[in-house]
Amino acid sequence: MLLQNERLIGGKVLEDLVFYEIHGPEAESYLFNQTTNILPSKIGFGEPNVFVTNKGAFICAFYLYKKSEQTFWAIVSKKDKDRFLERLELFHISEEFETNEFFENYSILVGEQALDNEYDKEIPYWFYGYRAKIVFEKSNLEEVNGDALKLFHGFHEKINRKLFTETRYIDFCYDKNKGCFPGQETVAKIVNNRGAALFPCLLKGKNLKSDNLEKGEYIDSWEDYHLVLLPRENRINHSSMKLGDSISREVLTFPVLEETPKEWAEALSDMAYEKFHEGNNEEAKKLLHYALNTKDDYADAYEMLGVIYGREDNYQVAIELMKKLSEIDSSSIMAHTNLSLYYMKVGEIEKAEDEKSKAMLKEFEKVGQTADAEEVAKKQKEEWSRKESMYKQVLEIDPDDFIAIFGLGELAFIQENFEMAKSYLSKAIDQNKKHSQSYLLLGKSLVSMNKNDEAKLIFEKGIKIAASQGDMMPANEMQSLLNNL
Asked: What is the pTM of this model?
């Protein structure tokens, strides 16, 4: 796993920060109206945020921590100090708040093991997409490579001279629903259209020089990974890009690493599973506890932890974990099955029988859900039949109606009538050569018919068309399917 030491064991990262206290009855409303992201709603929490110009250019990023109902801390990179203050005061006319700089000894900690430690004075923090904390004391933890962590989330100060929409802050610090802020109209127009003309990606491969990149802009490298800005037509995940040195490199679109709590928990649980099967129970338990620190309602981690403690004959801990699993996942059969076993092991026969009954009840509920699913499937077939009839009636009036042709092709694909799907979807492409979804479904139909050579040609053509229009979801799916052929 990339940067496993930095991301999982963790440590301190070095970055010069400046701390400001923004206090007053109108501090919150003013900050809300000037920033691109939501504000922290609860005391003791924080959110990353950004200032942009009226034309949507990136000014600076910062972290807002809610200290009290009328007080926020703004934590800013020292190099952005002047830009932050200038922009903060730009529209400050009569609003009641004041800004004061204060000084603290601090350390920035990232990585699950580092975050697992508790300190007398600490606050949550956001370090370029990674969960972090700031502790207000000197830390003796080892330094980790902060620049590499930034690069693998697509952040670099060279990119900060661009439009906000051309930075990865758009993925973390932009709330579409919060309403107006200076520059909002420009940002929304780009986001709702085809996205940024250039956007960060990674190229994976041998040494890359800036003059090798004919399209886009080279930013920086870490080992065989190169941070670049690429145009829309080249931002296809796992595609191969041949550069000026005639060497092909793999394109990786973000996120490359896990970014959401669920993704982190899944990755940590997968590693724990490997350690468990290697017989390293202690390491597996540690990783599972990290997973639950990240996402405290992750059911798989509770189940695996319970099983491990059960195999170690630590039945009381196993019982508590399985109880928690049953609370989080009310449909879990294994929670009650394991509880029955563990209660039996500790001699609580009545509870064991009760849990056994609950497990059987869950099995019956599952059978009932299967019957419900069969009824849903029946209604779905009736709906497909209704749509098919409607589309055919449209074609009787207008044989070239694109929506009806594509609709029949899509229905045929869903019902696994791939020969018919091929016929309709080919006609759909004849009618609209820029319809990305038609290429995707036609290619899938051809794969299902074992016509892989034809499918490759369709996917290759469809990827180019989808990318040129900013249809990145079908483009990336076609690239993934093409890579598997």
From this structure: 0.75
322, 277: one domain = yes
According to DSSP, residue 5 is labeled I
Check: CB of residue 259 under 8 Å from CB of residue 152.
Answer: no
- Do both 135 and 67 map to the same domain? yes
For 337-387, what is each residue's pLDDT tens digit? 888 889 888 888 888 888 888 878 777 676 666 666 677 777 778 777 888
Please, are residues 248 and 240 in contact by the beta-carbon 8 Å criterion? yes
The whole domain housing 207 covers: 197-252
Quick: pLDDT tens for 40-67: 999 999 999 999 999 999 999 999 999 9
How far apart, in whole angstroms, are the C-alpha atoms of residue 73 and residue 54?
25
CATH number at residue 324: 1.25.40.10
Q: Is residue 152 part of a domain?
A: no
Q: How far apart are the C-alpha atoms of 39 and 28, rounded to whole Å?
A: 8
Tell me, yes or no, whether 348 and 406 share the same domain: no
User: How many whole angstroms separate alpha carbon 94 and alpha carbon 99?
Assistant: 14
Which pLDDT tens digit goes with each residue over 116-152?
888 889 999 999 998 899 999 888 888 999 999 999 9
Residue among 317, 320, 328 at smallest CA distance from 295: 328
For residue 285, tell me if it sits in a domain: yes
First to last CA, the chain: 26
CA distance 25 to 14: 34
- CATH code for the domain in which residue 68 is found: 3.30.70.1400
- CA atoms of 401 and 396, how far apart (whole Å): 10
Number of domains forming the structure of the chain: 4
